[in-house]
Amino acid sequence: MTLTDTHCHLYLDKFDEDLGQVLDRAYEAGIREIYLPAIDWSSLEQMDKLSHPHIRFHKMAGVHPCEVEKNWPVDADRLAELLSGEEYIAVGETGLDYYWSRDHIDRQKESLSIHCGLAKKLEKPIVLHNRNSTADLLDLIESEQDGALRGVWHCFSGTLEEANRALDLGLYLGIGGILTFKNSKLDQVVAQLPKERLILETDAPFLAPDPKRGKRNEPAYMLYTARKLAEVMGESLEETARITTRNATELFRPN
User: Three-class SS of residue 94?
Assistant: First the structure.
């Protein structure tokens, strides 16, 4: 059985003390590929410390919406140069976040537009962060969508209506630990979604699934989410792993 963690910040210092053990546990859990979204420019160097003989790492470049103000103006030329090569396979993570602050919404939106433009021009998928900003995020993606934009709404936790709008805009939906939370009711939404547009993720070290909720998340814990998704989809764990890994490959493949 092969699993793919499509969103993991494994390069952060929360993993410094036991990174090797974390990676070994990921391998034992069936993880064979891990996708690494950037938070800011410093993320790019931190990603280079990751290595494992049996796990492939895929790097992204971008500026997280919560880091936009610290990195303003967003250096579009630098991003374009990085993303023009094969080293960085996707744009992000980018998006909108109104939870922590609503002081710089215009700059968040401008940053997201820059990332969308690069994703289309360079034919690479975009990875979208969304917190308390769903309507604005989807409105902006709709305005940018000209048939060339592809990507994922990472850490999806929306309604069925919001999910269907995202799907209509060509997005995949990233399913993480929130699916396992007993009061999230996300399982009722996901059960009505097309399985060919769902991918698995951890967002480690954040959002650990039950029964690890509240602890540091890590790629191996994706097994809990995968089991829950298998239950929701009415599939075996092995088939769920096969479907979500195939979906990840299709989304992040070079055009």
Answer: strand
C-alpha 78 chain-centroid distance:
22
Q: Which two tokens stand for residue 51?
A: 């290595």
Give me the residues paired with residue 31 across strands: 3
The helix/strand/coil state of 1 is coil
**pLDDT of 206-236, one tens digit each?**
999 999 999 999 999 999 999 999 999 999 9
Give per-residue pLDDT as tens, 118-164: 999 999 999 999 999 999 999 999 999 999 999 999 999 999 999 99
What pairing do the DSSP bridges indicate for beta strands 126-131 and 88-97? parallel
Distance CA 179, CA 209 (A): 8
Going by pLDDT thresholds of 50, 70 and 90, the confidence category of residue 243 is very high
Q: What is the dihedral of CA 174, 180, 183, 187, to 10 degrees?
A: 60
Structural element, H or E, at residue 83: helix 76-83
Dihedral sign for Cα atoms in the order 146, 150, 155, 157: positive
Cβ–Cβ < 8 Å for 166, 172: no
Reduced to 3 states (helix: H, G, I; strand: E, B; else coil), residue 149 is coil
Q: Measure the CA–CA gap between 81 and 61, rounded to whole angstroms.
A: 10
Report yes or no: 62 and 38 within 8 Å, Cβ to Cβ: yes
The amino acid that residue 34 corresponds to is: I
Place of tokens 């993570």: 93
* Average predicted confidence (pLDDT) for the chain: 97
